[in-house]
Structure formats: structure tokens, C-alpha cells
Amino acid sequence: MGRIEEFLHKREESNLLRVLHPATYKGEGFIYFNGKKYLDFSSNDYLGLSQHPRLKKAAKRVIEEFGIGCSASRLLSGDFDLHHCLEEEIAKFKGKEAGLVFNSGYQANVGIISSLCKRGDVIFSDKLNHASIIDGIIMSGAKFFRFRHNDLNHLHTLLKKERGKFKTSLIVTETIFSMEGDKPPLRELVRLKEKYDCLIMVDEAHATGIFGEKGSGVVEEENLTEKIDIIMGTFSKALGSFGAYVVSSEKVKQYFINKCRSFIYSTALPLPIIAANLESINIVKEESQRRKYLLENCRYLRRRLQEKGFNVRGCSQIVPWIIGEEKQAIYLSNLLQKEGVRAFPIRFPTVPKGEARIRFSVTYYHTRDILDNLINVLSKTDQISLH
Ligand code: PLP
What is the pTM of this model? Predict the structure, then answer.
């Protein structure tokens, strides 16, 4: 059997084969497959902004004036005033000196980390950090250590033993973990960063738009903006659009412009997207009730499920139901689908082996009635076991 067939066969045998699921339409909390309508708990459109008329209008206006593509990278002729306008806005929103836009969160993490560190340096990364962070670390060539999820003692032990052997040192964490829905002990991480003379970078992909008084993220909520060297995040989740940003000092921004290959060697993000991103920041600033309503509903869902004995985790709009076996997670997800609920099973290697789960992404569209409906469906399906 050839290498490709063997790989696919093994994946299928272990219930780990990934397949695509084309939707015919998606919006307002629902997703449609093959003409059937499902409640959508698989979307990162947390604030319901992807269909917002103001985002559409902003993008349309720019399409009429500039067309679609930027036709070149930022360092050639693809750089427009609007990119700089978004960079100023995102820097102000996040409370940092300077901002730089990236074409996706994946490209941002890969580019930032691989340009900050190199052979002879060391990176300490939370074990549950996103694949894009891991890939950036591997590309950097630096030595790296993965500390147990949110385990300060483990990180401290590693720092004590290893920090002194390397030049630059970087600590990386997410501020809302994408598959756990929880937060890191950020203040203590900052204390360790200071004690051991490290840089710290955080990924606010799932926190941007949701946490903090202004809605800019967990760093703002914890009043640690000054202390975090590099903050990245995306426009592709709560902000309902596409692309990513990094905010930092002006010097670090200039360094990335000169060093970061995923920034330098890629066509600039299209202007209709840039215009929509600007508008979504405005909405987040103006409409704090969206995130407050969302987080209240998430607390309600988590509490009700825990009362019923479900193993649910996290403290955010991401509510993972931990199931364990991959096969059981697939089975339960299919049962949910039969009941009109779309929530995907998350399996190895996205999460550790034996910790397969169904990840519920709660959004602004999920009213209490919808959540009660979900709880009823879950109570029914939980009584049906595979065995
Ligand atoms: N960082 C985290 C924590 C994520 O969950 C994701 C998205 O899945 C990314 C980065 C990548 O962002 P994007 O989808 O914009 O490439």
C-alpha cells in the first residue's frame, strides 16, 4: 500500500479521518446541509457580526471603489492607506503603540514566532497551544519545552532548569484556549517572565471582542497590556470577518515588517475585508451588550449542564463537553445531528488522545430558549450509549 493510502486507512481505522462538510448556507445561528436546517454550535462568529449590515455595507463600498484584490504584497504595491488605518485602530483598541495586519491568524503565529526566535533561543509553550503556535515554534529552530496546561509549577521548574542555557527566551500562551474554553493564569505568567527575563506573547484569537471592559480581550480585562510584549489576535472569530493582527511596540512592528516571512511574502489582505474589520471594531466598542449577553448565556448553559452531570469545561463562549473515546464522540455528534444540532467532534491530534470532545461554540444568536432546547437534546442523547 502506498504511503498516502496507508495514512488514510490508518486514520479511518482509528476514527480520526477528517472529511469536509459543505454547507449550503450559514447565518443567524443556523447552518444548512443538503437542504436541512440545523442549530449551529460550530461557528466562531461569537458576536454574530459576520452577517451584520454595517460590515456588509463597509465591504461593498470599498469593492465599488477599489475592486477585490490588492494585487501585490504590502511591501510592493499592495499597501493602502486603509491597511494603515486598521493598524492604527487595532493598536488603539488594544492599548499598544503599534499594530500590524496579517492575512490570517495561522500566518501571524507562524511568522511572528519564527522571526522572534532562532537556534540558540528557547520557547516555553502551553501544551494546549494552537497548531499555528506549534508550527511557528518548529519553524523557528529554537529549543522548546511544552509546559502542562496552565501549570505554573511545571513552567517554573522548566525555567529554573533551562532558561540560563539560552539567549532569547519566549513564553507563549493563548488567553482563551480554543478547545478548552479556559484562561491562563496570566498575571503569574507575567511574574515568571519578569523573574526569568523572557519575552511573553499571547494569542487572543478567541478573546478579542468578548472580554474586557472595551471588549479588546483578556489582556485588557486583567490590566496587563503594558506587561505583555506581543499580543496577536484575529478578525476571523468574534469580529466576524477575516485576517489577523499583532500589536506591540513600534520597534517590534518594524522588526516584523523586515523579518517576518509570512508578512513579507504574501499578497496583502483585500481592502473590502480591511473595511469590514474596521467596522467590526466600531461595533464591538459601541455594543457592549452583545458580549455581556453572550457571556451570561454561556454561564447559564455551563451551570445547567454541570448540574445535570455533564463533564463540561471552560469559562468562556467555548463550552467543551469531554467525552473521552473518539468513537463515542463521533457517535454522539451524529446523534445530535439527527436531533437538528450541529456540533463537531474534536479528536486527536487537535486534542490529546482519550480526550475527544464535542465543542459547543455559543454565539449571540443562541437565546435561552435555544440553549434549553440544546440541554434537552443533550440529556436525551447522553442516555444512549454506544456500548
Ligand atoms: N490561534 C488560535 C488560538 C486559533 O484558534 C486559531 C484558529 O483556529 C488561529 C490562531 C488561526 O486563526 P485563523 O483562522 O485566522 O488562521
Answer: 0.96
